[in-house]
Design goal:
By secondary structure, the chain is mainly alpha-helical. The protein has helices at residues 2-15, 20-29, 32-43, 48-70, 87-93, 98-111, 119-122, 127-130, 133-142, 152-155, 158-167, 177-180, 183-192, 202-205, 208-217, 227-230, 233-242, 257-264, 267-270, 286-289, 299-308, 318-321, 324-333, 348-357, 372-381. The protein is 55% helix and 0% strand. The protein has 25 helices and no strands.
Length: 389
């Protein structure tokens, strides 16, 4: 074990990853044999010329090994073990060898994991292989993640598209716009899965007939429609009646007061049938930044702290937390401070101040203070607020 550690240290010196000064520090701080080795290497540190010579020798030795693999007469096999992730050797040695590539596919099908980094070797595959429909389908049967690496010709080929789509619907978004915008190609696909409207081209998303068909099958398709269709009063009204949370996708210019109130007071929201999200306030660490914050009684010091970080309000002493000027200052800088203000101190004026600064502050407001005007103001600022009501 010590021998391996010493060898690694020597290699680090010749790779230039550890300096002479670094070895001296290691010698001072490391007891035992490793410290002695570091001291010896520091006193016999190689010159830049010696380091470059060692690098050249290793490089030539590596190329010689790869050349031997490339010229081998025996049956094609994977170097460095039967693992397709050692693809750099393949890329350098037998890139054009189809038999070798077929063996790579066999290993790939056995060992592929979704967590693997494809960029490490996919860019090294010769383009003639990525332009071959048979090879491409073999890759797609392993995972749709290979789709972006295929040739542009295959991505625009309608016959290949039908074969790839049978393998997995996940391949659809990677095809050329000429495929994703072709009504004759897309229409039967949307009948099979209307949510694929999300990956269609803009010309399909603005096709009212197809969009309405998708929405009829699944109202959530409304979010993928063209902005003009989402602003259509008849369409968005029908969708909001089915799912009020879809108001988030209605363009702001189409949000009237009556429309907002209709969504907010929808029966589904009243019965809380949707899963209300809890808004998480990401707190700072005032104790770390301001160590005396819980001991200091100075109003001026508290004011300075809040100006630097409004969320410091929560860590102030209680007598300062109830100071009206400090509350108003904190809310004007960060409306989410409302979640830390005592309920009895929250007034309609302060609630409006918080909402103006951050519309999501309404989720922390007492129900009795929430008026239609405040709801409209918050929703017009950011329709996502409806998720937290």
């Amino acid at each position: 074990m010590l021998f391996n550690a010493i060898a690694d240290l020597k290699n680090s010196v010749y790779r230039g990853s550890i300096s002479q000064e670094g070895l001296r520090r290691m010698a001072r701080n490391t007891p035992g044999q490793m410290g002695d080795v570091a001291r010896f290497l520091a006193s016999n540190y190689p010159t830049p010329e010696e380091i470059e010579k060692r690098r050249q020798e290793e490089h030539h030795a590596s190329l010689a090994r790869l050349q031997a693999i490339a010229e081998a007469k025996e049956k094609p096999r994977f170097p460095l073990g039967q693992d397709y992730r050692n693809f750099r050797c393949y890329a350098l040695a037998k890139r054009e060898d189809r038999a070798f590539f077929d063996l790579f596919l066999t290993q790939l099908q056995k060992q592929y994991r979704e967590s693997d980094d494809l960029n490490a070797f996919m860019d090294m595959i010769p383009m003639q292989f990525l332009d071959d429909a048979q090879i491409a389908l073999s890759l797609l049967k392993v995972s749709h993640r290979f789709m972006p690496y295929l040739s542009d010709r295959l991505k625009a080929d309608e016959s290949f598209f039908h074969l790839a789509f049978q393998v997995s619907e996940k391949n659809f978004p990677y095809f050329a716009e000429s495929i994703r915008g072709n009504v004759l190609v897309v229409e039967p696909i949307l009948k099979q899965n209307p949510m694929l409207l999300a990956a269609c081209s803009d010309s399909i998303k603005s096709n009212q007939t197809l969009v309405l068909y998708c929405i009829e099958r699944n109202v959530l398709c409304f979010q993928f429609a063209d902005a003009t269709l989402r602003a259509n009063e008849a369409i968005n009204t029908a969708c909001i009646e089915k799912n009020p949370l879809l108001i988030r996708f209605v363009p702001k210019e189409a949000l009237s007061d009556a429309f907002i109130l209709k969504a907010v007071f929808h029966d589904d929201l009243k019965q809380k049938s949707h899963q209300k999200r809890s808004f998480q306030v990401i707190e700072s660490h005032p104790k770390r930044s301001f160590p005396d914050i819980e001991k200091n009684n100075s109003f001026q010091q508290a004011k300075r702290w809040i100006q630097m970080d409004p969320l410091c309000y929560r860590k102030l002493k209680k007598q300062l937390q109830t100071h009206p000027l400090l509350i108003d200052l904190a809310l004007s800088l960060n409306g989410l401070v409302l979640s830390f203000v005592p309920t009895k101190l929250i007034t309609e004026k302060r609630l409006k101040l918080a909402i103006q600064q951050n519309p999501f502050a309404i989720s922390f407001a007492p129900e009795k203070l929430i008026t239609e005007a405040l709801l409209i103001e918050a929703m017009k600022a950011n329709p996502e607020v409806i998720l937290y009501l």
